[in-house]
Design a protein that fits this description.
With about 425 residues, the chain is of the alpha/beta class. The protein has 2 domains: about 10-60 and about 325-420, Aspartate Aminotransferase, domain 1 (Alpha-Beta Complex); about 65-325, 3-Layer(aba) Sandwich (Aspartate Aminotransferase, domain 2). It is about 35% helix and about 15% strand. It is built from 14 helices and 15 strands. It has a 7-stranded mixed sheet, with helices on both faces. Mean pLDDT is about 95; it is low at about 255-260. The structure holds pyridoxal-5'-phosphate. Pyridoxal-5'-phosphate binds next to α5.
Length: about 425
Amino acid sequence: MAVLDQLTSQQAMDLENKYGAHNYHPLPVVLSRGEGVHVWDVEGKQYYDFLSAYSAVNQGHCHPKIVGAMVNQAQTLTLTSRAFYNDMLGKFEKYATETFNFDKLLPMNTGAEAVETALKLCRKWAYEVKGIDENEAEIIVCENNFHGRTTTIISFSNDPVARKNFGPYTKGFIKIEYDNLKALEDALTSNKNIAGFLVEPIQGEAGVFVPSDDYLSKAKALCEKHNVLFIADEVQTGIARTGRLLATCGNCSCADKHCSGTPEVKPDILILGKALSGGAYPVSAVLANDNIMNVIKPGNHGSTFGGNPVAAAIGIAALEVIKDENLAQNASDLGDLFRAELSKYIEHSTIVNAVRGKGLLNAILINDTEDSDTAWNICLALRDNGLLAKPTHGNIIRFAPPLVMTKEQLLDCISIITKTLQQFEK
Ligand SMILES: *Cc1c(COP(=O)(O)O)cnc(C)c1O
């Protein structure tokens, strides 16, 4: 078999199984093309993508404006490293900081790197501005969090699969229950060395857990009272996914085309990734105001590829698409429709217990145990019926299509989903 021969699905899966590390358990489907809300497998079958690469492809597959910016920049200048300036990074930093209303941006590549950056920034601020004794800083995190896969990040995960036999673990983290303000207040009052509170506005990987309405604003107020940095990991919830530019936007007018990103809950440190590139390229970023970001000095932190001109060009295009195409508003409208229609179905269902989410980040709870394979089997049947989704945590199926979907397409998808679920009713 020549390297460039067109493979069948089976051949492609066999190759990955034989030559690739088994660090994922993919749904058996082999994709070779994507456009907008659709992807196609190597045999040419078309699917609706209801994962969007874990919300990286909010702008739709191969968006021409994003791909155009990427190709154009790739033919001009790809990488200088930060040893020299390039003529794209500053433009991206200006555009993104104005969009999200922060003084400064620190560019990285992946979400986990951006989380690591935020943790380092928070600790350095704690020692140099807040005045915590060296090596004593603690950062509060939530149970069932997902922030990535590095050694430090998995140190404060409570997923045994992600953690076991990867120790020794990084110290300096205190874990509290999510959506529990009392637990946060207790942790803040019982310890003088708290530097930050790292939180997902909605816990995506944990199964799309939406906290109480006032949780984020009250948590932010508690952090302010105790001079602790509120760090929002919006890698999955950000960039219009939940019906607003950011999930921390509350009820501001972020769904507006010309939103300046004035959030109801303004994080001290904002972490972005995934859809910051529309799925074209790894682009992540940490945003903060000068009083925090200025603790980082030359040599303190960096990345060879972080802030490269291709990433910068893509980042600008990806954010422009969100605004130009009103994707926050579309996610909000379609999300309401999706939950309303699924709720109607669930009233008479024995196989689905609930639907929950915000904007187009939603999940259904399958009426079976967490270790059952019902959700997996439903996803296989959805695939056969032309729609791709994946279980998260056993009996929960996440539904997160690209935000460029039309109402007609969504209704078509809802009919595929409900017809498929009907096959599993007892
Ligand atoms: C995906 C994700 C990350 C990690 O991003 P990677 O690019 O996979 O490293 C971090 N935080 C959240 C909330 C995520 O969803």
